[in-house]
Design brief:
Layout lengths: L1 H18 L4 H4 L1 H28 L3 H16 L5 H10 L5 H19 L8 H26 L6 H27 L5 H21 L25 H9 L1 H29 L4 H25 L6 H19 L3 H29 L5 H23 L5 H35 L77 H4 L3
Keywords: Cell membrane, Membrane, Transmembrane, Transmembrane helix
Protein name: Major facilitator superfamily MFS_1
GO molecular function: transmembrane transporter activity
């Protein structure tokens, strides 16, 4: 045990040292990564507890109905994330640390309450609250990232670092949570109680963030919908490209595909004679795919996050087509690996585009709307995945959706490039006419073509008859003599007032 503890401590020190390189410690990114690690660890504990109580502990038919009810309850309140939570977090532009700490505190309280409600109906609203607060934390953290990003790193690279931290936390905590749940007389309730303690640690780490997280000094704020446009060519080019809608469409398709394959393959592998090893392989493919997506996105999307989108769609299409042509359990897991990698890569590009192009004071709302759309599409894909269908048919339908999205996105990119070329080749607006300047020898060029000169003005102008002279007024008027002020009257003597008698004293006299 001593050797294991020493190895874990040594690994933690190495992770912290790697997280602080590249100026991350000075900018505050390392502190945000530590908070993200704790948040991801809590999410992993909640996921293990809910999956064990809703999926693995009941028969397949009952599990399908419970998962469907969970998806239905989860889908409805997420509509509030964009119109309510996003604007509320926008008002915390100068209190982001407090907002993050409050979210962690609320999640800890809900996790502790959920530990004693796993067998009742209250599990659904409590799980819903945890899920909504998890998305709210992600929205607030994404808005904080530009304030702590070092100058040496791009936004895609910063997002990839945080995603790697989240994946590492899930990979370490999830197996430990499964081991704790299998201890006699412990089970999943104690997993949630440990999760509550982890969230309380997140409260302390949120206040440990640097103070400039709460300051907007040096940031250029813009207001959407006010008719103010950027004057530089870069802003007009971005408006012509329309990168945000293209990125959002591609990310939504990939996120919905992940939700579909998560539930579709989970029930398909369970009903087709597969044991828990295949389900464990599916979970491993999901984790490894997320890590590969972060690695690919960090390497290829440093300058152009838009280029990650077509690459993501291409990977997802290749995996689904391979499984549709030759369906086996192994090819289905390979398709899940590629789709998860593509979704993680596309999400990095979407976050970088929002952080780059959206105004700072509306960035929370933009993240909230994107997270709402992503979650709703994931739930919709998971609901479709509950339908029983053969493996070949399911992957063929997924391939058709991805290929159709690639066709639409290709046309959109062609239109964007055409608009960019037209904007680049458009003639500049003619300058306003100015009055003819007086020629000077300082700007005289003997080789330049001479312009036709206007006829010179006459030297003498016609004389008009003089106007009659009026008598001039005196330069200064005589001042009136000063009038002496009368002496001030003495103040009247003050007469003392009789004491005022209260209503309870009048009856006694």
């Amino acid at each position: 045990m001593v050797n294991v503890g020493a190895g874990v401590a040594r690994g933690v020190r190495k992770l912290r040292a790697s997280a602080r390189r590249g100026g991350a410690e000075q900018s505050g990114l390392a502190s945000l990564m530590e908070l993200s690690f704790v948040n991801a660890a809590g999410d992993a504990l909640v996921t293990v507890a809910l999956a064990g109580s809703l999926f693995f502990a009941v028969p397949t038919g009952e599990a399908r109905s419970k998962v469907a009810l969970y998806l239905l309850i989860t889908m409805v309140p997420f509509v509030l994330l964009a119109p309510v939570i996003g604007p509320v977090l926008d008002r915390f532009a100068y209190g982001r640390r407090t907002a993050l700490a409050a979210i962690c505190l609320a999640r800890g309280m809900l996790a502790w309450q959920l530990a004693s409600s796993l067998d009742g109906v209250a599990v659904y609203p409590l799980a819903l609250g945890l899920l909504m607060l998890s998305r709210s934390f992600g929205v607030a953290r994404s808005a904080v990232i530009p304030r702590v990003a070092p100058r040496e790193l791009t936004l895609v690279k910063v997002n990839s670092r945080i995603s790697l931290v989240n994946i590492a936390a899930g990979a370490v905590v999830a197996p430990a949570a499964l081991g704790i749940a299998n201890i006699p007389y412990v089970g999943y309730p104690w997993v949630l109680r440990i999760c509550a303690i982890v969230y309380m640690i997140g409260v302390l780490l949120a206040f440990n963030l640097p103070k400039h997280v709460d300051s907007a000094a040096g940031e250029k704020r813009a207001f959407l919908g006010t008719g103010r446009f950027r004057r530089d060519i870069t802003g007009r080019l971005r408006r012509a490209l329309g990168g945000l809608p293209v990125a959002l469409r591609a990310s939504l398709v990939l996120r919905g595909l992940v939700g579909f394959l998560t539930f579709y393959l989970a029930f398909l592998l369970r009903t087709s004679g597969g044991n828990n090893l295949w389900l464990a392989g599916l979970a491993i493919c999901a984790g490894v795919g997320s890590g590969l997506g972060v690695f690919v996105g960090g390497r290829l999307g440093r300058k152009r996050p838009e280029a990650l989108l077509m690459l993501s769609l291409l990977m997802a299409a290749g995996g689904c087509l391979g499984a549709a042509v030759n369906y086996t359990k192994l090819t289905s897991l390979l398709a899940a690996l590629l789709v998860t990698t593509a979704s993680s890569t596309g999400k990095l590009g979407l976050d970088a585009i929002i952080q780059r192009d959206v105004a700072e004071d509306t960035r929370n709302s933009a993240f909230a709307r994107s997270e709402t759309a992503m979650q709703l599409v994931w739930v919709a894909g998971g609901a479709i995945g509950l339908i029983e269908m053969p493996g070949t048919l399911g992957f063929a339908a997924a391939s058709a959706v991805v290929l159709g999205t690639m066709f639409v996105e290709t046309r959109a990119l062609h239109r964007s490039r055409a608009a960019a070329r037209e904007l680049h080749n458009a003639p500049h607006a003619p300058a306003a006419p100015h009055a003819p300047a007086t020629p000077s020898m300082a700007h005289f060029d003997p080789g330049a073509p001479t312009q036709p000169q206007a006829p010179p003005l006459p030297q003498t102008l016609p004389q008009h008859p003089p106007l009659p002279q009026h008598p001039t007024l005196p330069q200064a008027l005589p001042q009136a003599p000063a009038v002496p002020r009368p002496p001030a009257a003495p103040d009247a003597p003050t007469v003392p007032r009789p004491p005022v008698r209260r209503w309870w004293e009048r009856g006694s006299s």
